[in-house]
Amino acid sequence: MRTIRHEALSVKTHHRTMLDHFPIRIVTRMLVLLALLATAAGRSTTRQDDTLVRVFVFAGQSNMVGADSRASDVKLYPPFAGLEGPQKDVLFSYCIGREEKAQSEGWVELQPVEDMVGAELSFARRVSKELDAPIAIVKVAAGGTTLARDWNPDEPSGFKLYPLALERTRKALQDLERRGLRYRLEGFCWHQGENDMFDPNMREAYARNLARFIECWRRDLRAPDLQFYIGELCTKTIWGMDHRVEMNAIGTAQREVADKDPRVEFVPTAHIAIEIGGDGGLHYHYGTLGQLEHGVNYAAAYLRTLGREPKLERPLETWPYAKGEKVRLFVLAGHRNMEGERAFVQELPAESKLAESNPRVAYRYQLGGGFRSSGDWEPLGPAGCYDTLGPELSFAATLARGSTEPFAIAKFTHSGSQLVDWTPAGSETPSRNLYAAFLEFVRSARGDLERRGHEVELAGIFYHLAENDMSFAPYRRKAIEQLATLMSASRKDLDSPTLRWFVSQQPPTAVEHVRSIDVTAQLASLAARDPHLVHIRAFDLPGMDAELVITTPGIVALGELLATSYLGLR
Question: I want to staple 414 with a disulfide (CB 3.0 to 4.6 A). Which of 49, 369, 557, 563 is the partner?
């Protein structure tokens, strides 16, 4: 078991105050008739009033702080370009850190703090695109803190963050009133729990403590209907692997509170990006890309409560296959690189036409363990959660060049999973088990094609070997055994005893503590014994700039490699 590390943030102060020279165009946008409405300031119940400032509170520990993120890295992620700079239309009041705190003097423009990227940046931009109302964000966060002590509203100890955050929020609201701005407390975004999970008493009390925390915020801010958005702890981190039971306990408690309170939303984050670093690439923190995706998740949850989440439907308007035609069904499955964590639509070469919808190929998907699903068939095209894509696009293009036979693609991924989650037996955290859902997904895709009158050939399951497992010895040691179990069970349960599995493998992590476990030799040995297993060594892909993750050029090359491996057996 790993020893908990303190997540202190030593940062300094201060952004310049904007109280006396905030841009006139923003003041004009938000100003109301104060003299007649002073008694009602900040307490309007008119949901459609776009002159009201929507105020959001962001709070938690290091993965709310923005630990191990860098504003200078935002430019690496095209969907989030520009968020390294200020958002002049958004008010921001913050106090971040423990012993030494970075804090604004009143309201400032929303922007990174001390080169750190927080979820509030992408949240604000996303929400601003949907609402005409002005936005203000109060943020108080400090790494390595607990709900049981630091954030305890009744008996705060340690860094006493509950009274600190409450005072910061009250002063920020009073400042809006002083400036003649009406407001409404709109939502509270919370990401915390990693440190409570290490103490058995804190774990056991987390649901009660969280419910009490929410109750006290609503009481102390006189906002009984305040909506809360509770961010899931990310299972892709190293703690999600070596402390999966403890993390599951916190997640279960969070869901329990959300299930009981209609004004609490549980926000999945297990699938989002994680900083690359630490032992073999594994990390504790979201880092830059993860923080930006984190904020998008909160924004989507908030917009859902308003009925304003945009529809992402891509209907397959004309069925691409002739009546009675035989269709090959290709199943793509895996973790972060099959999902396409670091591959972005904006980086695809225009001449490749991979970013265009392809109505000749029916595509069905379930990503992030169900975070995003197609439901019905769509035309093949980019469908990732954050303008991301997997190898399915180049896979299909290569197949089409090599064969005229019609085919469909079904993709099932969860980048926050480990291989044990895919096995029929699963693990000691059943909430993370995927096998039954994966099996049903494949059956449903095949069955739907059959109901449409097609003979279906299940052409193969293309699985990219679990990346995180390769960096953690207890998981790496069992990986090929678990893979064999998964393949055997799938063949039996899908009534396809000769079902081919195409297992691609990127260079396994080479750090000292896992290097002695020769997973490549083990997989080669399994392939030698299994005539229906094709071992694909994807060792020379471009775009492998860091441990574990493959960027856009490599994901395109991986799809081509998977397809040529299949075509070579035809």
Answer: 369
